[in-house]
Amino acid sequence: MMAAIPDSVVARAARGEHDAFAEIMRRHNQRLFRTARAILRDDAEAEDALQEAWVQAYRALPGFRGEALLSTWLVRIVANEALGRLRKRRRGAEVIALGADVDIAETHMDESHTAHPEQAAERAQSRRLIEAGIDALPEAFRAVFVLRAVEELSVEEAAHALGIPAATVRTRYFRARALLREALARELDLALEDAFSFAGARCDRIVAKVLERIAAS
């Protein structure tokens, strides 16, 4: 779980001290980017939304009274910014509030643990598979899934951050888990069909070598 930012740092940032605000940004950037990315499904647009959300947070920080955790308050800001961009993208179409969760280890989304090239390649492949599965979740599930499964927010924290009831978070969380597991199982089935493949050039090479040996005997 993410360690809380000391109140003294928050107070300094609220007074306009940029180094303190930079510390807050670095501590929360990953969580907020993942929130925006879950809503927008686009890296570049998620970065833009994150940047704008940080500007809004900087301006609003002097009025932060601590009724909620700072991290939850920040997630709410970036989620609202991302949802606003989604509405604009759809030319005013009604946007469904987001939610969900699956037990995914942090290392699946983090490439920093690279002991060996083979393990790094497998980890990256797993990460891409999981990210594709998350992107394919229905819109109503993605953000809660990321907040609950990846960022490990509580049901109450996710509900407060996204402005939806806790019961809705729970329902979408379990449904998203089931959907993601089904999607990953299908991908695994397809991968197993190709496991230890012996077609193409490999097959031709063996046939040629056997025929060569038979002819020579």
Structural features, described:
The protein has 217 residues and is an all-alpha fold. It has 2 domains: 95 residues, RNA polymerase sigma factor, region 2, helix turn helix motif (Rna Polymerase Sigma Factor, Chain: A, Orthogonal Bundle), CATH 1.10.1740; 122 residues, Winged helix-like DNA-binding domain superfamily/Winged helix DNA-binding domain (Arc Repressor Mutant, subunit A), CATH 1.10.10.10. It has 9 helices and no strands.
Short description:
The chain has 217 residues and is an all-alpha fold. The chain contains nine helices and no strands. The protein is 69% helix and 0% strand.
Features:
217 residues; mainly alpha; Rna Polymerase Sigma Factor, Chain: A; Arc Repressor Mutant, subunit A; 69% helix; elongated
Task: Set down the secondary structure blueprint.
Layout: H1 7-14, H2 18-40, H3 43-60, H4 70-89, H5 117-135, H6 142-150, H7 155-162, H8 166-193, H9 201-216
Helix pairs in contact: 1-2, 2-3, 2-4, 2-6, 3-4, 4-7, 5-8, 6-7, 6-8, 7-8
- Main β-sheet description: none
Helix count, per DSSP? 9
Mean pLDDT: 80
What is the architecture of the largest domain at the second tier of CATH?
A: Orthogonal Bundle
User: So, the CATH homologous superfamily of the largest domain?
Assistant: Winged helix-like DNA-binding domain superfamily/Winged helix DNA-binding domain
What is the CA-based Rg, rounded? 23 Å
Helicity, in percent? Answer: 55-70%
Count of DSSP E strands? Answer: 0
Q: Distance between the terminal alpha carbons, to the nearest Å?
A: 68 Å
Main structural class: mainly alpha
SSE string, helices as H and strands as E: HHHHHHHHH
Q: How large is the share of residues in beta strands?
A: under 5%
Query: Judging from the principal axes of the Cα atoms, what is the shape?
Result: elongated
